[in-house]
Design brief:
Blueprint: E1 3-9, H1 13-26, E2 31-33, E3 42-47, H2 54-68, E4 76-80, H3 81-87, H4 89-94, E5 100-102, H5 110-115, E6 123-125, H6 130-138, E7 148-152, E8 154-155, H7 166-169, E9 174-175, H8 178-190, E10 195-199, E11 207-210, E12 213-216, H9 217-224, E13 232-236, H10 245-253, E14 260-262, H11 270-276, H12 282-295, E15 300-302, E16 304-307, H13 314-326, E17 333-336, H14 353-376, E18 382-390, E19 396-400, E20 406-410, E21 419-427, E22 431-436
Parallel strand pairs: 1-2, 1-3, 3-4, 4-5, 5-6, 7-10, 10-13, 14-15, 16-17, 20-22
Antiparallel strand pairs: 8-9, 11-12, 18-19, 18-21, 19-20, 21-22
The structure holds iron/sulfur cluster.
Length: 445
Amino acid sequence: MEKKIFIKTFGCQMNEYDSNRIYDSVKKIGYKKTNDQENADCFILNTCHIRDKAKEKVYHEIGRVKKIYRKKSKPIMVIAGCVAQAENNEMLKREPYIDVVIGPQSYHKINDVLENLVPKNKKEETEFNTISKFEYFDRIENKNNKVSAFLTIQEGCDKFCHFCVVPFTRGPEYSRPYDKILSEAENLIKNGAKEITLLGQNVNAYLHVENNKKYRISNLINKLEKFSELKRIRYTTSHPKDMTDDLIDCYRNNKKLMPFIHLPIQSGSNKILKSMNRKHSVEEYINIYEKIKKINPKIEFSSDFIISYPGETEDDFNDTLKLVKQIKFINSYSYIFSPRPGTKAASLQLIDKEISKQRLLIIQKNLFDHQIKMNKSFEKKIVEVLVENKLKDQSKLFGRNKYFNSVIFDGNTNNIGKLLKVKIDSSNQNNLFGKIQENKGMRAA
Ligand code: SF4
Protein backbone atom coordinates (compact mmCIF):
# COMPACT_ATOMS: atom_id res chain seq x y z
CA MET A 1 0.00 0.00 0.00
CA GLU A 2 1.19 3.51 -0.82
CA LYS A 3 2.47 5.45 2.19
CA LYS A 4 2.34 9.22 2.61
CA ILE A 5 5.24 11.41 3.62
CA PHE A 6 5.15 15.03 4.76
CA ILE A 7 8.28 17.17 5.14
CA LYS A 8 8.20 20.47 7.01
CA THR A 9 11.19 22.51 5.94
CA PHE A 10 12.85 25.28 7.96
CA GLY A 11 15.61 27.68 7.01
CA CYS A 12 17.48 28.26 3.81
CA GLN A 13 17.04 27.25 0.16
CA MET A 14 19.56 24.42 0.68
CA ASN A 15 17.12 22.75 3.07
CA GLU A 16 14.34 23.23 0.54
CA TYR A 17 16.50 21.58 -2.11
CA ASP A 18 17.32 18.71 0.29
CA SER A 19 13.64 18.16 1.15
CA ASN A 20 12.79 17.83 -2.53
CA ARG A 21 15.63 15.36 -3.04
CA ILE A 22 14.37 13.30 -0.07
CA TYR A 23 10.94 13.20 -1.74
CA ASP A 24 12.64 12.00 -4.96
CA SER A 25 14.44 9.27 -3.01
CA VAL A 26 11.60 7.86 -0.88
CA LYS A 27 9.37 7.54 -3.93
CA LYS A 28 11.46 4.46 -4.74
CA ILE A 29 10.26 2.71 -1.57
CA GLY A 30 6.59 3.55 -2.05
CA TYR A 31 6.21 6.90 -0.31
CA LYS A 32 4.11 9.61 -1.91
CA LYS A 33 4.50 13.29 -1.05
CA THR A 34 1.50 14.76 0.78
CA ASN A 35 0.68 18.33 1.76
CA ASP A 36 -1.69 17.08 4.43
CA GLN A 37 0.40 17.04 7.59
CA GLU A 38 -2.45 15.53 9.60
CA ASN A 39 -2.46 12.23 7.72
CA ALA A 40 1.13 11.20 7.09
CA ASP A 41 2.79 7.83 7.64
CA CYS A 42 6.17 9.53 7.88
CA PHE A 43 6.66 13.09 9.19
CA ILE A 44 10.04 14.74 8.66
CA LEU A 45 11.16 17.99 10.25
CA ASN A 46 14.02 19.33 8.13
CA THR A 47 15.57 21.69 10.66
CA CYS A 48 17.78 24.77 10.60
CA HIS A 49 20.36 25.80 13.20
CA ILE A 50 20.97 29.37 12.08
CA ARG A 51 18.37 31.19 14.11
CA ASP A 52 18.16 31.57 17.86
CA LYS A 53 16.81 28.73 20.06
CA ALA A 54 16.76 26.34 17.09
CA LYS A 55 16.80 23.22 19.25
CA GLU A 56 13.89 24.32 21.44
CA LYS A 57 11.83 25.19 18.36
CA VAL A 58 12.26 21.61 17.13
CA TYR A 59 10.98 20.15 20.41
CA HIS A 60 8.07 22.59 20.25
CA GLU A 61 7.25 21.34 16.73
CA ILE A 62 7.36 17.72 17.91
CA GLY A 63 4.85 18.66 20.63
CA ARG A 64 2.56 20.03 17.91
CA VAL A 65 2.85 16.83 15.85
CA LYS A 66 2.09 14.74 18.95
CA LYS A 67 -1.15 16.69 19.44
CA ILE A 68 -2.20 16.16 15.80
CA TYR A 69 -1.72 12.39 16.08
CA ARG A 70 -3.00 11.98 19.65
CA LYS A 71 -6.01 9.93 18.55
CA LYS A 72 -4.50 8.09 15.59
CA SER A 73 -1.47 5.97 14.94
CA LYS A 74 1.78 7.82 15.19
CA PRO A 75 3.79 8.60 12.03
CA ILE A 76 7.46 7.66 11.77
CA MET A 77 9.00 10.82 13.20
CA VAL A 78 12.25 11.88 11.54
CA ILE A 79 14.41 14.84 12.53
CA ALA A 80 16.68 15.88 9.64
CA GLY A 81 18.82 18.94 8.92
CA CYS A 82 21.37 20.91 10.91
CA VAL A 83 19.77 20.59 14.36
CA ALA A 84 19.74 16.81 13.87
CA GLN A 85 23.44 16.93 12.99
CA ALA A 86 24.34 19.14 15.95
CA GLU A 87 22.26 17.29 18.57
CA ASN A 88 22.41 13.71 17.18
CA ASN A 89 21.83 10.98 19.76
CA GLU A 90 20.82 13.46 22.44
CA MET A 91 17.53 14.02 20.65
CA LEU A 92 16.64 10.32 20.74
CA LYS A 93 17.37 10.23 24.46
CA ARG A 94 15.37 13.36 25.26
CA GLU A 95 12.29 12.75 23.09
CA PRO A 96 11.02 9.16 22.74
CA TYR A 97 8.53 10.27 20.05
CA ILE A 98 11.47 10.62 17.60
CA ASP A 99 12.27 7.48 15.58
CA VAL A 100 15.11 8.71 13.36
CA VAL A 101 17.73 11.46 13.56
CA ILE A 102 19.50 11.99 10.24
CA GLY A 103 22.09 14.65 9.41
CA PRO A 104 22.29 16.53 6.07
CA GLN A 105 25.24 14.47 4.81
CA SER A 106 23.47 11.13 5.37
CA TYR A 107 20.31 11.62 3.30
CA HIS A 108 21.43 8.92 0.88
CA LYS A 109 20.64 6.44 3.67
CA ILE A 110 17.04 7.58 4.14
CA ASN A 111 15.44 4.72 2.16
CA ASP A 112 17.38 2.04 4.03
CA VAL A 113 16.64 3.65 7.36
CA LEU A 114 12.89 3.88 6.71
CA GLU A 115 12.61 0.40 5.23
CA ASN A 116 14.51 -1.30 8.00
CA LEU A 117 13.17 0.65 10.93
CA VAL A 118 11.75 -1.60 13.61
CA PRO A 119 9.78 -0.24 16.57
CA LYS A 120 11.92 0.37 19.63
CA ASN A 121 15.06 0.34 17.46
CA LYS A 122 15.67 4.01 16.88
CA LYS A 123 18.19 5.17 14.33
CA GLU A 124 20.79 7.91 14.30
CA GLU A 125 22.71 8.74 11.08
CA THR A 126 24.98 11.74 11.42
CA GLU A 127 28.20 10.80 9.64
CA PHE A 128 29.78 13.20 7.16
CA ASN A 129 29.63 11.32 3.91
CA THR A 130 29.01 14.10 1.40
CA ILE A 131 30.56 12.33 -1.60
CA SER A 132 28.42 9.20 -1.14
CA LYS A 133 25.37 11.41 -0.67
CA PHE A 134 25.82 13.19 -3.98
CA GLU A 135 26.84 9.97 -5.80
CA TYR A 136 23.55 8.49 -4.62
CA PHE A 137 21.42 11.47 -5.61
CA ASP A 138 23.17 11.78 -8.99
CA ARG A 139 21.52 8.45 -9.84
CA ILE A 140 18.03 9.68 -8.95
CA GLU A 141 16.28 12.12 -11.25
CA ASN A 142 15.52 15.53 -9.75
CA LYS A 143 11.75 15.67 -10.21
CA ASN A 144 11.45 19.35 -9.33
CA ASN A 145 9.26 21.07 -11.91
CA LYS A 146 9.28 24.60 -10.57
CA VAL A 147 9.79 27.63 -12.81
CA SER A 148 12.49 28.80 -10.41
CA ALA A 149 14.57 25.82 -9.33
CA PHE A 150 17.42 25.36 -6.86
CA LEU A 151 20.54 23.39 -7.65
CA THR A 152 23.10 22.63 -4.93
CA ILE A 153 26.62 22.78 -6.35
CA GLN A 154 28.64 22.97 -3.16
CA GLU A 155 28.21 22.16 0.50
CA GLY A 156 30.00 22.85 3.75
CA CYS A 157 32.48 25.45 4.84
CA ASP A 158 36.17 25.65 5.76
CA LYS A 159 36.11 29.25 6.94
CA PHE A 160 35.03 28.82 10.56
CA CYS A 161 33.58 32.22 11.34
CA HIS A 162 33.53 32.24 15.12
CA PHE A 163 29.75 32.69 15.38
CA CYS A 164 28.66 30.03 12.89
CA VAL A 165 27.67 26.35 13.23
CA VAL A 166 27.77 25.50 9.51
CA PRO A 167 31.31 24.01 9.49
CA PHE A 168 30.13 21.65 12.26
CA THR A 169 26.72 20.76 10.85
CA ARG A 170 27.52 20.59 7.12
CA GLY A 171 31.18 19.62 7.34
CA PRO A 172 34.12 20.67 5.13
CA GLU A 173 33.71 22.34 1.73
CA TYR A 174 32.79 19.92 -1.03
CA SER A 175 32.12 20.80 -4.67
CA ARG A 176 30.04 18.47 -6.84
CA PRO A 177 31.47 17.31 -10.20
CA TYR A 178 30.89 19.86 -12.97
CA ASP A 179 29.25 17.43 -15.42
CA LYS A 180 26.84 16.08 -12.78
CA ILE A 181 25.66 19.61 -12.03
CA LEU A 182 25.14 20.32 -15.73
CA SER A 183 23.15 17.15 -16.28
CA GLU A 184 20.95 18.01 -13.27
CA ALA A 185 20.50 21.52 -14.72
CA GLU A 186 19.52 20.05 -18.09
CA ASN A 187 16.95 17.90 -16.36
CA LEU A 188 15.51 20.85 -14.42
CA ILE A 189 15.24 22.85 -17.65
CA LYS A 190 13.53 19.91 -19.35
CA ASN A 191 11.04 19.90 -16.44
CA GLY A 192 10.24 23.59 -16.99
CA ALA A 193 12.82 25.59 -15.01
CA LYS A 194 13.32 29.07 -16.47
CA GLU A 195 15.50 30.23 -13.61
CA ILE A 196 18.19 28.30 -11.74
CA THR A 197 19.69 29.40 -8.45
CA LEU A 198 23.02 27.72 -7.77
CA LEU A 199 23.28 26.94 -4.07
CA GLY A 200 26.04 26.42 -1.56
CA GLN A 201 26.97 27.55 1.94
CA ASN A 202 30.00 29.08 0.21
CA VAL A 203 28.69 28.86 -3.30
CA ASN A 204 31.43 30.97 -4.87
CA ALA A 205 34.12 28.77 -3.29
CA TYR A 206 33.00 26.13 -5.82
CA LEU A 207 36.06 24.36 -7.22
CA HIS A 208 36.05 21.06 -9.02
CA VAL A 209 39.25 19.69 -10.54
CA GLU A 210 39.13 17.04 -13.26
CA ASN A 211 41.90 16.03 -15.69
CA ASN A 212 44.00 18.90 -14.34
CA LYS A 213 41.32 21.40 -15.34
CA LYS A 214 39.78 23.63 -12.72
CA TYR A 215 36.07 24.38 -12.85
CA ARG A 216 34.76 27.36 -10.91
CA ILE A 217 31.30 28.83 -10.48
CA SER A 218 32.07 31.21 -13.36
CA ASN A 219 32.42 28.18 -15.69
CA LEU A 220 29.05 26.90 -14.55
CA ILE A 221 27.35 30.29 -15.02
CA ASN A 222 28.79 30.71 -18.50
CA LYS A 223 27.83 27.19 -19.50
CA LEU A 224 24.28 27.58 -18.16
CA GLU A 225 23.84 30.74 -20.22
CA LYS A 226 23.99 28.59 -23.35
CA PHE A 227 20.74 26.74 -22.53
CA SER A 228 18.26 28.75 -24.58
CA GLU A 229 15.22 27.71 -22.49
CA LEU A 230 16.88 29.02 -19.33
CA LYS A 231 16.23 32.74 -18.85
CA ARG A 232 17.79 33.64 -15.51
CA ILE A 233 20.74 32.57 -13.36
CA ARG A 234 21.31 33.40 -9.68
CA TYR A 235 23.61 32.06 -6.97
CA THR A 236 23.69 32.19 -3.18
CA THR A 237 25.29 32.46 -0.59
CA SER A 238 28.66 33.92 -1.40
CA HIS A 239 31.66 34.94 0.68
CA PRO A 240 33.61 38.13 -0.15
CA LYS A 241 36.92 36.22 -0.09
CA ASP A 242 35.77 34.05 -3.01
CA MET A 243 34.48 36.93 -5.14
CA THR A 244 37.24 36.38 -7.70
CA ASP A 245 37.72 38.31 -10.96
CA ASP A 246 36.44 35.46 -13.15
CA LEU A 247 33.14 35.60 -11.27
CA ILE A 248 33.03 39.40 -11.35
CA ASP A 249 33.64 39.23 -15.12
CA CYS A 250 30.44 37.19 -15.49
CA TYR A 251 28.58 40.45 -14.75
CA ARG A 252 30.25 41.94 -17.82
CA ASN A 253 29.73 39.06 -20.21
CA ASN A 254 26.76 37.01 -19.11
CA LYS A 255 23.32 38.24 -20.11
CA LYS A 256 21.34 35.83 -17.92
CA LEU A 257 23.10 36.46 -14.62
CA MET A 258 20.73 38.63 -12.57
CA PRO A 259 21.97 42.08 -11.42
CA PHE A 260 21.47 41.34 -7.74
CA ILE A 261 24.12 39.95 -5.36
CA HIS A 262 23.60 38.73 -1.83
CA LEU A 263 27.06 39.21 -0.29
CA PRO A 264 27.17 39.00 3.51
CA ILE A 265 29.60 41.31 5.32
CA GLN A 266 28.25 40.99 8.92
CA SER A 267 29.95 44.15 10.27
CA GLY A 268 31.37 47.43 9.01
CA SER A 269 34.20 47.38 11.57
CA ASN A 270 37.52 45.74 10.73
CA LYS A 271 38.13 45.05 14.40
CA ILE A 272 34.88 43.08 14.65
CA LEU A 273 35.43 41.30 11.30
CA LYS A 274 38.79 40.14 12.64
CA SER A 275 37.33 38.91 15.89
CA MET A 276 34.59 37.11 13.91
CA ASN A 277 37.37 35.43 11.85
CA ARG A 278 35.71 36.63 8.64
CA LYS A 279 38.98 36.64 6.63
CA HIS A 280 38.17 39.86 4.75
CA SER A 281 38.22 43.58 5.54
CA VAL A 282 35.68 46.33 4.96
CA GLU A 283 38.00 47.82 2.31
CA GLU A 284 38.15 44.52 0.41
CA TYR A 285 34.36 44.36 0.46
CA ILE A 286 34.02 47.92 -0.84
CA ASN A 287 36.58 47.13 -3.53
CA ILE A 288 34.40 44.25 -4.80
CA TYR A 289 31.34 46.49 -4.69
CA GLU A 290 33.09 49.21 -6.70
CA LYS A 291 34.47 46.78 -9.29
CA ILE A 292 30.99 45.39 -9.91
CA LYS A 293 29.30 48.79 -9.96
CA LYS A 294 31.87 49.90 -12.52
CA ILE A 295 30.83 47.06 -14.80
CA ASN A 296 27.15 47.89 -14.38
CA PRO A 297 25.92 50.63 -11.98
CA LYS A 298 22.47 49.03 -11.96
CA ILE A 299 23.68 45.94 -10.10
CA GLU A 300 22.39 46.00 -6.52
CA PHE A 301 23.58 44.35 -3.30
CA SER A 302 22.05 42.83 -0.19
CA SER A 303 23.85 41.61 2.90
CA ASP A 304 23.68 40.06 6.38
CA PHE A 305 24.51 41.98 9.56
CA ILE A 306 25.17 40.70 13.05
CA ILE A 307 24.55 43.55 15.49
CA SER A 308 26.20 43.66 18.95
CA TYR A 309 28.74 40.94 18.28
CA PRO A 310 30.76 40.59 21.53
CA GLY A 311 33.21 43.48 21.79
CA GLU A 312 31.26 45.79 19.45
CA THR A 313 31.72 49.35 20.74
CA GLU A 314 29.70 52.41 19.77
CA ASP A 315 32.45 53.25 17.25
CA ASP A 316 32.31 49.77 15.70
CA PHE A 317 28.55 50.04 15.41
CA ASN A 318 28.87 53.47 13.79
CA ASP A 319 31.26 51.96 11.24
CA THR A 320 28.53 49.48 10.28
CA LEU A 321 26.02 52.31 10.03
CA LYS A 322 28.44 54.25 7.82
CA LEU A 323 28.79 51.25 5.51
CA VAL A 324 25.01 50.82 5.30
CA LYS A 325 24.69 54.47 4.30
CA GLN A 326 27.48 54.16 1.73
CA ILE A 327 26.37 50.92 0.06
CA LYS A 328 22.69 51.28 -0.33
CA PHE A 329 21.74 47.63 0.18
CA ILE A 330 18.33 46.99 -1.29
CA ASN A 331 17.36 44.15 0.99
CA SER A 332 19.23 42.67 3.97
CA TYR A 333 19.03 40.47 7.03
CA SER A 334 20.04 41.95 10.37
CA TYR A 335 19.80 40.45 13.82
CA ILE A 336 21.32 40.72 17.28
CA PHE A 337 24.16 38.29 17.98
CA SER A 338 23.08 35.18 19.85
CA PRO A 339 25.55 32.46 20.78
CA ARG A 340 25.49 29.04 19.12
CA PRO A 341 26.69 26.20 21.35
CA GLY A 342 30.00 24.76 20.21
CA THR A 343 31.22 27.88 18.42
CA LYS A 344 34.13 30.06 19.57
CA ALA A 345 31.91 33.10 20.06
CA ALA A 346 29.60 31.15 22.39
CA SER A 347 31.79 31.85 25.40
CA LEU A 348 32.19 35.60 24.78
CA GLN A 349 30.52 38.23 26.89
CA LEU A 350 27.23 39.49 25.51
CA ILE A 351 26.44 43.16 25.03
CA ASP A 352 23.65 44.70 27.10
CA LYS A 353 20.20 43.78 25.69
CA GLU A 354 18.83 47.34 25.64
CA ILE A 355 21.88 48.71 23.84
CA SER A 356 21.64 45.85 21.33
CA LYS A 357 17.94 46.49 20.67
CA GLN A 358 18.62 50.19 20.09
CA ARG A 359 21.44 49.41 17.65
CA LEU A 360 19.26 46.93 15.76
CA LEU A 361 16.46 49.50 15.48
CA ILE A 362 18.85 52.09 14.06
CA ILE A 363 20.40 49.71 11.52
CA GLN A 364 17.04 48.34 10.43
CA LYS A 365 15.56 51.81 10.03
CA ASN A 366 18.37 52.65 7.62
CA LEU A 367 18.14 49.34 5.76
CA PHE A 368 14.34 49.37 5.54
CA ASP A 369 14.16 53.05 4.53
CA HIS A 370 16.35 52.31 1.57
CA GLN A 371 14.48 49.13 0.72
CA ILE A 372 11.17 51.05 0.69
CA LYS A 373 12.74 53.83 -1.38
CA MET A 374 14.10 51.31 -3.89
CA ASN A 375 10.70 49.61 -4.16
CA LYS A 376 9.01 52.98 -4.65
CA SER A 377 11.43 53.79 -7.46
CA PHE A 378 9.76 51.01 -9.52
CA GLU A 379 6.33 52.68 -9.33
CA LYS A 380 4.98 53.80 -12.71
CA LYS A 381 7.77 51.81 -14.36
CA ILE A 382 7.62 48.59 -16.31
CA VAL A 383 9.56 45.65 -14.90
CA GLU A 384 10.32 42.27 -16.38
CA VAL A 385 8.79 39.54 -14.24
CA LEU A 386 9.31 35.79 -14.33
CA VAL A 387 5.91 34.36 -13.38
CA GLU A 388 6.38 31.57 -10.83
CA ASN A 389 2.91 30.58 -9.60
CA LYS A 390 -0.58 31.56 -8.56
CA LEU A 391 -0.89 32.82 -4.99
CA LYS A 392 -2.63 30.38 -2.66
CA ASP A 393 -6.36 31.08 -2.25
CA GLN A 394 -6.14 34.14 -4.51
CA SER A 395 -6.58 34.89 -8.18
CA LYS A 396 -3.29 36.80 -8.27
CA LEU A 397 -0.06 35.69 -9.89
CA PHE A 398 3.33 35.82 -8.21
CA GLY A 399 6.68 36.40 -9.85
CA ARG A 400 9.98 38.17 -9.34
CA ASN A 401 11.76 40.98 -11.07
CA LYS A 402 15.50 40.93 -11.78
CA TYR A 403 16.27 42.24 -8.29
CA PHE A 404 14.38 39.38 -6.65
CA ASN A 405 11.51 41.64 -5.52
CA SER A 406 8.23 39.78 -5.36
CA VAL A 407 5.70 41.15 -7.81
CA ILE A 408 1.96 40.48 -7.44
CA PHE A 409 -0.55 41.08 -10.22
CA ASP A 410 -3.76 39.81 -11.84
CA GLY A 411 -3.38 37.30 -14.61
CA ASN A 412 -4.13 33.95 -16.09
CA THR A 413 -2.26 30.82 -14.99
CA ASN A 414 -1.26 30.32 -18.65
CA ASN A 415 1.36 32.96 -17.89
CA ILE A 416 3.23 30.77 -15.38
CA GLY A 417 6.76 30.23 -16.69
CA LYS A 418 6.69 33.31 -18.90
CA LEU A 419 8.71 36.50 -18.75
CA LEU A 420 6.18 39.33 -18.73
CA LYS A 421 6.29 43.10 -18.64
CA VAL A 422 4.39 44.36 -15.60
CA LYS A 423 3.66 48.01 -14.86
CA ILE A 424 4.10 48.71 -11.15
CA ASP A 425 1.29 50.75 -9.55
CA SER A 426 2.23 50.55 -5.88
CA SER A 427 4.71 49.00 -3.49
CA ASN A 428 5.46 48.33 0.17
CA GLN A 429 8.58 47.16 1.96
CA ASN A 430 8.35 43.61 0.61
CA ASN A 431 6.24 43.63 -2.55
CA LEU A 432 5.53 45.37 -5.80
CA PHE A 433 1.97 45.41 -7.15
CA GLY A 434 1.11 45.98 -10.79
CA LYS A 435 -0.66 45.07 -14.00
CA ILE A 436 0.46 43.08 -17.00
CA GLN A 437 1.52 45.47 -19.74
CA GLU A 438 0.34 44.75 -23.23
CA ASN A 439 2.56 47.30 -24.97
CA LYS A 440 5.54 45.19 -25.97
CA GLY A 441 7.46 48.16 -27.31
CA MET A 442 8.29 49.58 -23.86
CA ARG A 443 11.59 48.93 -22.13
CA ALA A 444 11.66 47.20 -18.76
CA ALA A 445 13.63 48.39 -15.69
S1 SF4 B 1 31.64 31.61 5.75
FE1 SF4 B 1 29.42 31.50 6.07
S2 SF4 B 1 29.00 29.32 6.38
FE2 SF4 B 1 31.20 29.56 6.63
S3 SF4 B 1 31.51 29.83 8.82
FE3 SF4 B 1 31.32 31.88 7.95
S4 SF4 B 1 29.14 32.41 8.10
FE4 SF4 B 1 29.31 30.18 8.42
